[in-house]
## 1
Amino acid sequence: MEFIKVNPQHEKHIALIELNRPKELNALNRQLMLEIRDALRELDEDDNVRVIILTGGTKVFAAGADIKQMANATAIDMLNIDQFSTWDQIKKTRKPIIAAVSGFALGGGCELAMTCDMIMASETARFGQPEIKIGTMPGAGGTQRLTRAVGKVMAMELVLTGKFISAEEALEAGLINRIVPVELLMDETLKLAREIAKQSPVAVKLAKEAVNNAFNSTLDEGLVFERKNFYLTFASEDQKEGMAAFVEKRTPEFKGK
Ligand code: DAK
């Protein structure tokens, strides 16, 4: 891996992916995105991993797709490269992914954070979709995910002016889970990851799928989907263990089975 560092066992059951292209502010070139895709595929299949953290480190999350790499591309180049398979892999990952954001999360960087399931931010985090300033527009879900997260009028303002918002504004708008001091970003993100990693991996997977389905269905369809996943948890040993542990007043030991 040239542009990311991956540690499948950063902690028990918690994997860490760190973007590592600091001189270019972690600009997402094609190679970096392919590396993220491959890492996520492997971590999703690794039974020891229950939660994945994706971070750019303490200085910058990602300043967007690599403008220098895209600058002279034709529409047909973009079509043929088919970068969307990479983004689709992020969306398809069944284990929870937490983005830990410090500094700029712009354009594709903001889209990358929003494609994750939760966003922890440091007080230095800045979010934006500035593609309009370079004569284009968001292409990896920005107009859709941002709008769903913060509502139409704020999404319009961000997408049409390219302005950045602070961590406080992002929190108020519902884009992120919380703000923590920069030096505590990883500790606080790990705390959240641990809370999830101690639950039943089967139930977590099914619940994540059901929450995501809320964006793709009517309420009635979503409720039917939720019900089926709920029934399915009763086919797991983890559900038997979780309820037995409650009755016996002990901590459950979930196995993901
Ligand atoms: N691409 C390439 N290089 C970048 C970059 C980027 N997005 N952002 C920064 N860099 C490079 C700079 O060119 C500079 O390189 P050198 O000149 O040192 O060689 C180095 O990183 C440091 O940047 P600055 O000198 O500019 O640093 P400042 O602190 O002064 O400014 C900044 C930081 C983040 C405000 C500024 O760098 C900036 O405005 N960057 C561009 C932000 C931006 O416009 N982002 C959106 C890019 S478009 C798709 C998927 C995704 C996308 C499209 C399609 N498909 C699946 C098809 C996404 C598109 C985008 O994200």
## 2
Amino acid sequence: MNIKTTTFIFSTLLLSAFLSSSCNAQEKGLKDVAQGKFLIGAAVNVNQVKGKDPKCIELLDKHFNSIVAENCMKSEEIHPQENVYNFTEADEFVNFGKKHNMTIIGHCLVWHSQLAKWFCVDKDGKNVSADVLKKRLKDHITTIVTRYKGQIKGWDVVNEAIESDGSWRNSKFYQILGEEFIPLAFQYAHEADPDAELYYNDYGMSDKGRRDSVVKLVKMLKDRGLRIDGVGMQCHVGLDYPEITEFQKSVDAFKAAGVKIMITEMDMSALPTINRGANVADKVEFEKKLNPYPNGLPEDVSAQWNNRMTEFFNLFFKNADVITRVTAWGVIDSDSWKNNWPMRGRVDYPLWFDRNYEPKPFVKDLINK
Ligand code: 9MR
């Protein structure tokens, strides 16, 4: 072999090694970056589950290893009348998760919002008695959890029962059963599937009042010998709230209370903040000045958004001993509920992938690190 041929073979080998390593780098998804640390989840909607958005499914396969039902398991959808369950979409969701090798999360068994109209009232619209509500809660939880036993890894058992100041939300469940509805819900869920993980899930979890009350709630459930595996920190955040240090304080507090933490509904609005919570009922009228980027996010705002996402992910990785899942509340920007809340018709940029299915810069940075 002459020197020319040797050089040629050597350069070809080098080039193919380079190409294959750069291909591998491109093939890596977020879930690979978080491998061994936490799951990467996404809330999916019925269109995605039905395969109507194939590009979105590609993203799910590449970057995610967990899914949660955005809407189809809420009582209004799955249990619209006392004696009527509608499992079609929830079944499709679970089958989709199994087909795509996802860890499947159920959301949510007890929530004051999107509550089936019949659930807490009698035929005259008056609150039912405590005994009637207990029976309805038990039937609801037992039927749903039993149906998906062994297929759903964990359930958001109770969603959003605590206000920002730490007081109990004055929901119909609370009005009728007091705080007892929470241990009852955890008990019924555990009886229906003893192997399922059980979570309390809420937004605004870095608010001190809510943080302290969630810790008390976890202790109360544990003191009674009930199962609670984790606390879901929804993480619907904005460019100017919450302070990352306050978020860390809540992570520390929940860790000290002896539960796992899941970041369950992450999105970050890039628009001016109107409302710091995530209460679906809080709405305001459309105003043009509060929809400043209808045709795309300016570079400086995008940079600010990506830097702050990186800060959040740094926090997640730093606390990977206790954070077991990080779930985005949707896949691409156009899917997000934030485009319509708290003001209908805004164009927001809150998710990890843009309207063209492209990863945002912070995602690319995480993957190429
Ligand atoms: O993203 C969900 C949106 O499509 C629904 O219209 C709304 C009401 O059911 O719920 C949204 O999801 C909420 C989640 O279930 C609980 N935490 C707050 C989320 C955003 O509102």
## 3
Amino acid sequence: MSDDLSYVQPTINSPWGTYLSQVDRVVPYLGNLARWVETLKRPKRALIVDVPIEMDDGTIAHFEGYRVQHNMSRGPGKGGVRFHPDVTLEEVMALSAWMTVKTAAVNLPYGGAKGGIRVDPKKLSQQELEKVTRRYTSEIGIIIGPQQDIPAPDVNTNAQIMAWMMDTYSMNVGGTATGVVTGKPLHLGGSLGRVKATGRGVFVTGREAARRLKMDLRGARVAVQGFGNVGSVAAELFAEAGAKIVAVQDHTGTIVNANGLDLKTLLPLARAEGVVGFKGGDVVANDSFWDVACDILIPAALEGQLTAERARKTQAKLVLEGANGPTVPAADDILAERGVLVVPDVICNAGGVTVSYFEWVQDFSSFFWDEDEINQRLDRIMMNALNQIWDTADRHRITLRTATFAVACERILMARQERGLYP
Ligand code: GLU
């Protein structure tokens, strides 16, 4: 027994509150390892940094940055960095914890970490963005490293930002440390297949779930929330498999077309300016996205989107969590009662970190694989993990989320126990 954390007061649907309730649900399946469960309910280490930069107009701006290392029992910390005006310490804690569970679920030799800066990158010039990135990297440089904690892209961060992070860290240590971040540009130690890996993993797990539900992907209707690196790639792969993308929502609004949106024209437009200017669909109110007629729902935006109310009205039979933490616990219960299958984030979107792992391994060996090899290994790891989770779910008659937590938390807490407490 221990006291609650003083620096965060989780509320019911907050990301950290959601994570804690997911952990509580797994305790009955942990056997003697439950003794260690408290370790999952607090981050190992959390750093808050000030990120001051000189703006283009000569003023000085300060941004708040975070890096949270939730758990390192199974290996170095691993997880992305997001730039978003609403980022908080509590959110980054939850995201770091989900990374711990995710890396363990697919059995990568990592712990979990996450970072963020409370900033709206759309309001920064390219030069300001570079300054923010470099100063943040320098500030968290005392706790990251190829063997300590390896950042990667997340919401609003990309290969260019990873290149600046790699360069800043390298300059500070006096070398070229490609293994300090993943998701880098190809010619700087990046890996083929990394950009599409998260969306690909969503597709691979979704295809298997559909097969088990006896749902034919040809003609299946798919609704996607969030049309960034995860949602748009998943949509493309589902469309290639014959599915119809009937609704897409992004930060500009929601478009629908019951006959399927034409992705070839939508994708470039969405990347440039968002989805609402698209002529091949109807713009509808954002709230209508949640009860659109569809078979598969892919929340691939931010946390807490699938609320109880939205879970009650969705027509989907399958939910694929491209985002981290999109479903609140009450919604999970409603979906389970309604017989809607949820492939949880901690396995569904693990494709990104899996290819990040390949990138890190390739950087260490300075030997690079071709894309076929990467995709084959990715598919194999995701399918093995999913099958094991499915067996666990069937054995205990629990949801895929609780089963994923059961498989992952057993690995994490076993490592914790074997390492023992120091001193
Ligand atoms: N940001 C991604 C995630 O949430 C990838 C993290 C990584 O590659 O380390 O899983």
## 4
Amino acid sequence: MNPGVFLTQRKREVLREMGITVWVRRERGPIPETNPHSEAPVAISAECLPAADLPSVETLGWDELRSRVDACTRCEELASTRTQTVFGVGAHDADWLFIGEAPGAEEDRRGEPFVGRAGQLLDNMLAALDLHRGDNVYIANILKCRPPGNRNPRPDEAAACRGYLDRQIDLVGPRVIVALGRVAAQALLDTDLPLGRLRGGEHRYRETPVVVTYHPAYLLRTPGDKAKAWQDLRNARALMRDV
Ligand code: URA
């Protein structure tokens, strides 16, 4: 960080939250409050056609994809225990795509990814990159349904949900993808490598560069690793500049 850079109060708070100490020369006025925005809810239309006659997921637009996800019963346990599906949120043409694991209790209740405590930290991570939810960022999960008791997604569930994520990625067309945590990174990159081996490596999803970092929930438990996450985000920002 260049100490000559003028930092807003909000940015300093965000960096402090990320475990980064910054020498500040002069303060500017506060920046406006962030205005997290959710996608407008889309009418849930029951799928009337037999599964075999449905258009394939790769051909669906945003509204049809969301309806398909809302009606999904591929994972019997998840479909019968969820309050609602959690599709994803953000700008449909975002440069940045952040991918988490699966909705938790709060996300299941509200229908939006990363709205619990981990979500607050994710918002701070975004703010450290001068990004804001809904503004040039899309946020999605490997699973669109909450695993009961917040257990890890099972491989068969990740596989069943994969087509939805692939289509979201196609539709967004991000320039950089950030995978949040081991489960997201392993599922996205189709690997068994541990997070320690994936962090800092060069990865691609199809043509798009993927940066692997810690999951915000892990960082809440292990704040000492926030500085390493910040380094990952800086790498992502450098990639974004290069792409
Ligand atoms: N953790 C995730 O991985 N995704 C969410 O949406 C919330 C918590």
